[in-house]
Amino acid sequence: MESKQLKIHNSLTRQKEVFKPINPPFVGMYVCGPTVYSDVHIGNVRTFVSFDIIYRYLKYIGYKVRYVRNITDVGHLEGDADIGAEDKIAKKARLEQLEPMEITHRYTLGFHEMMNTFNTLSPSIEPRATGHIMEQIEMVQDILDNGFAYVKNGSVYFNTVKFAESNDVYGKLSGRKIEDLFSETRDDLKHQDEKNHPSDFAIWIKADENHLMRWNSPWSVGFPGWHLECSVMSTKYLGKTFDIHGGGSDLKFPHHENEVAQNHGACNAAPAKVWIHTNMLLMNGRKMSKSDGNHITPVELFTGDSTHITKAYSPMIVKFFMMQAHYGSTLDLSDAALLAAEKGYRKIMEANRTLQQLVYEGAEALNDEDTEIQALMNGIFVDMNDDFNTPQALAKAFGLVNKINSFKDGHIALNSISRRTFEKLQYIFTAFLFDICGLKDETLNSEESNGITDELMQLIIELRQNARGNKDWAMSDKIRDSLAGIGVQLKDGKEGTTWIKS
RNA sequence: GGUCGGGUGGCCGAGCGGUUAGGCAGAGGUCUGCAAAACCUUGUACGGCGGUUCGAAUCCGCUCCCGACCUCCA
Prior knowledge:
- With 502 residues, the protein is of the alpha/beta class.
- Helix content is 45%, strand content 14%.
- It has 16 helices and 15 strands.
- Strand 11 and strand 12 (286-287) form a beta hairpin.
- It binds one RNA strand of 74 nucleotides through helix 1, helix 6, helix 8, strand 12 and strand 13.
């Protein structure tokens, strides 16, 4: 059964491969988390939403997943430089006259809140770089012992030239040719002269006097290089070689490339079998950039407080918008695209409510509808198995939306599908939307209502029905329009009137 | 400049050798007191130029644009 096999695009091989865990049913997945020195970027949110769906789907199809996502709270230097620049967190701490830990604590909380807002599941473990200084020092020592690093003035550098000579690993992940890597010069960086070669990178950095974050090590009082934490923490929690390593495509080089080198250098093993890279979020067809104003924050999306959008978009609308594209493609955020996503999101949520309220009656009178619906349901999983293709799976789900609404309108008799198919439909549809995609039904009115709202609405709907019965159109329209004015939309259907918050 | 990845209808976005993707918007219809919602029907595509093939959006070559990384921005 082809459709039963999960295939994943492996960045390492640039091919879709059948996913075979090292120790089924267990799966180890490591995803590079945020550097907590500022509010989380909406593009970063996309990455974590993508991996949330991947995590949810792996669990849904029965794997026992250990999902590790780190918090980078030290070592990530300005400009992704590996030395000579200021640590992102230390810089922020200095600016705001706070302890580095205050900075990272604040933004870690903010990050968690945002992940919660987007209804993503917590990873199994969320280790911090500062909590693993000892292990990082040990790994530096291991790399030194294996001859792939050298010490200069208290800093330790990874010897890329020697590493490249000893195997053909370096450059493979990012698709770079060794010659190109080695011909690059970055003269503008300080401490460049400490390196034997421009492509070498720091794994331990000696702190200068003013540096706020510093630890004792055999080489100097200093701090670990940015790439090291991921090598260390993935190894510690998932083993030398594990199943999946993920992150944004912007991390491919140098971060992931150097991570791979470190793992080989320390453990003589490749860290991950499968690499998954999620693509960038654009806005209005261009890269988001703070400096030229082509930029929006998650909060601005939720409040509508931005010149780039005409209205507020809720977290689930934004999430749904993201799901309509494949994680491996760039996605272009725009007001029109969000508007379309909002309509689509509401339509599918409404269909789910309709579906759950349908009641199967009468004897089965099966026809083609049964097989069509079976095929659509099955298709969702065929698509998800094809490298987590959420846009295609969603297309199948919209096929089901069509069927569901036809049941509601009586265009298709419910008993033209079997009772079993119907029950499966109710189950699968909800499971896909909520368990796999991790959506929430924000339009659901029962959440904050305590029953009174529903009863009040029933009363109002009844009063309007009476008015309509008396052909008192002025009254019935007044009710409808007034409700619309306070954000309640009435929907007249064959089976009576329902309402939603608009 | 180097290395990767893209250019699909009004918009977003799947597909990647032969099938309606899907959502939104548009047009016509059904329903409705009128609307909205829902349902039915429906138009508009594959950057350009060559080539391979019975057949190409899908493969190859050239070309033009765009994006990512290499350099502050996830």
